[in-house]
Amino acid sequence: MLRKSYDLIIIGAGPAGSSAAFTAAKQGADVLLIDKKEKPGIPERCGGLLLSNDWPEFLDVNDFPSIYTLSRIQLYSPDGNSVCLNSRSLGTDFYSFDRSRFDAWLLEKAEHAGARVATNTMATGLVSNGNGCVQGIYCQNGNGVVKVEAPLTIGADGIEMRVGRWAKLQRSFPSNLTNPCCRMLVRDIPLEEDRIHMFFSREYCPEGYAWAFPRGNGVYNVGLGLNPTMVEMGNARRKLIQFLEDKFGTYTILHESNGGVVLDVPNHSCVKPGLLLAGDSATLINPLTGGGIHTALLAGHEAGKTAVRILGNGSLAEEALQDYNRFIKHNITKDHLLSKKIKKSIYAYSDNDLNHAVSMMRFFPARIPSLVFCLLLSNPSITMKNLFRGFFRNTTSRNR
Fold first, then answer.
1. CA dihedral defined by 360, 361, 364, 370, rounded to 10 degrees?
2. How far is the C-alpha of 78 from the C-alpha of 354, rounded, in Å?
3. pLDDT at 396 over 60
4. Banded model confidence at residue 263, pLDDT cuts 50, 70, 90
5. C-beta of residue 46 within 8 angstroms of C-beta of residue 102
6. What is the dihedral of CA 380, 382, 384, 388, to 10 degrees?
7. Per-residue exposure over 311-349, b if at least 16 CB sit within 10 Å of its own CB, e if not
8. Which of 52, 208, 301, 391 is the most buried (most CB within 10 A)?
């Protein structure tokens, strides 16, 4: 049974919501964390990969028992040739894990910290005063629609972005920016289990990539993401099946799910009086990799800290909310703008250019700078256009 009021309401029990709840509850806030599902994180719709360097300091990696640590990455060109980079040259290892288990673990940590968790509870709207300040939510559970009040709410409802749209912080659902994805748990494919595998080909994943992340015991999380302007949403599964059949021939599918990621760097505020957005709900997804776990944890933790700061001194609310906005801009958006430029530059090269770049790597040490150098050499015309475009933009921005 929900009470009529709490210090903080958090909508969505994914990585952003649960990390916010854990952070705030641990510091004494009276937190309500709701999720529309009975078991948040199920079905799994994610590659489930995190750089070891991106594992957040507020979580002890040794507490999570289901991590598969990998020290290499194999990058495949469209013709099937590949280059292997190790963790020494990359400066990081990779953590592969089951997102459903990770979400359950993080939710349990939030609950043990003192957060009240209500599953099977869907937010249906925001409670606002006459000045537009958010003061709680309407939500639906087994008792019908109920009103729950709180001086602060965190929207962490994922790609649906309903909270941001209710608050008029987000535009309508950006389907033209939603990259369709399909992922499967697969066994019986002939790939090394000590590394992650990434495949690039316009035939299977135009302006995207396919992945195979080992989970241990011969099981892989295999999937791909596609450019929404080039391939319709329903074709992601068909493309993945085609990829599996062409690359491996025989395989066994254990589980599958479809979804999408919004690869749009936010140019909107993530706050308004009484409300913060975090994670996918704030479109904090890397445009180059499609990864959002790291930024969800980072933003969720900061949102929880910001909430505690405001609850401790309400006169600091406006300053604290703007500090949160600045944190998102400097620690996430800035990197994502660079990633967006890198992605545009990379996909200017054709499949033949990628084939040529990887084939040249046999003459160079297996390091990122060498791979970038080979890519630049693969098509000097494209390289000069990219360099000129970057120089022109930098010169223009300095003169503004």
1. 110
2. 7
3. no
4. confident
5. no
6. -170
7. beeeeebeebbebbbebbeeebbeebeebbbebebbeeb
8. 208
